[in-house]
Amino acid sequence: MDEKITYDTFFARSFSRSDQKKLGYGAFIGCLLIALSFCLVFMPYSSPQSIRLGTSVPKRMNIVCKSEKRSDYCEIKGEDVRIDAKSSTVFIVASSQQSIRDLEDNTTSLLIGPYSRKEDQIAMKSVRKWLVKPVMESNVTPPCSQTHSVPAILFSLGGYSGNNYHDFTDIIIPLYSTARIFNGEVKFVVTNSNPWWIKKFRNLVQKLSNYEVIDIDNEENIHCFTSVVVGLKRAPQELSIDPSKSSYSMKDFRQFLRSAYSLNKVRAIKIEDEDDDDDDGKTRPRLLIVARNRTRAFRNTDEIVGMARNLGYEVRIAEADGNIQRFAEIVNSCDVMMGVHGAGLTNMVFLPENAILIQVIPFGGVEWPARAAFGEPSKDMNIRYLDYKIKAEESSLIEQYPADHEVFKNPLSISKQGWLTFKAVYLDKQDVNLDTNRFKITLLKALELLHQ
């Protein structure tokens, strides 16, 4: 199985709302460079799943459309842009006679699903598509019923929204990368809107925009702007920002989070070497155990807590929920966070600088995707990363299958039976009973890092 497909299958699918069968990729198209100008390209779709390069748009119209690995987006500046929900169309009206003449020979359109996981056909099924269409003034276009003086960003809350991991990697981080440059003077035009999502992340939404969100799907009005971004800019890696293509970095994003949620702890504790016989003056590093009560839960939490306290940790146990403010404060107060692989580990974004993330990797061939999801992103967040891969005897699977079963002998054969089978066995039905003597080495390594 291709490594990249395996990764997207494990993560984009494991948190989906419905059964899923096959992961597909959209085309990866680069920009057409125009001499003496910047990239001004329209890429028409022959169908919602198909992209081909089209004719360049005249530079006078100041439009940049790009098709990148994870997302398609258009930046339209200084034009008459009309958003019509009834027809799912973003009209760009030519602003001069010269533009009209240019458009007569160069008119083309682009269909965009404004959600940044375009290669995943399952995710995109719940994302409304919008036609970005340049038109001439003589054409019949809907008249403006509401005109706005600030730019807009049109994006979707469809896809895998509602899962904490996808909320951050598919929406929040790309939205930050796209919107931060406007310093609040931008309106969010949301398609596939979920009011509960807006409420959950209201701190971040209000930090990025000074205006109320427009639920465009329920609008009768034609909303008109002079500048619109359709879609979100996203780095190809998970939970990351590409600083070569953005004005910001993950360091900037994490500072933004601390400001939005009033998080006080900037750096993790640095343990000073002191007299081991005198514990009175020591500050104990704080360890957070991220609990899971449904799948991939720790079965011997009390034993883990006792061992960690004996090593010198102050221990806290908490489960992530919909109260982002509460859990962000808990995570930010800690120096080390540990948990079994899953969406709850996304809260690593709230850890202080130089903190340590310990990912407990379930049995069954998920090492590579698990590390890609959380291990690799930790580097740009200035978080030290450790992982602990459990053995078969630490898995609850030993209670469900005989020792010579393919589940233990050959996880690859299970994966070949399809994603649903693999997910049901290794993610949905597996809990963890940590070997505390073996895991102790990992917690000691974390203490060693906190001395550095």
From TrEMBL:
Keywords: Glycoprotein, Glycosyltransferase, Membrane, Transferase, Transmembrane, Transmembrane helix
InterPro entries: Glyco_transf_61_cat, Glycosyltransferase_61
Pfam families: Glyco_transf_61
The keyword Transferase is assigned to this record: yes
GO CC list: Golgi membrane
Subcellular location: Golgi apparatus membrane
Topology with respect to the bilayer: Single-pass type II membrane protein
Transmembrane segments: 23-45
GO molecular function: pentosyltransferase activity
Domain Glycosyltransferase 61 catalytic per the UniProt entry, residue ranges: 248-357
Protein name: Glycosyltransferase 61 catalytic domain-containing protein
Biological source species: Gossypium raimondii
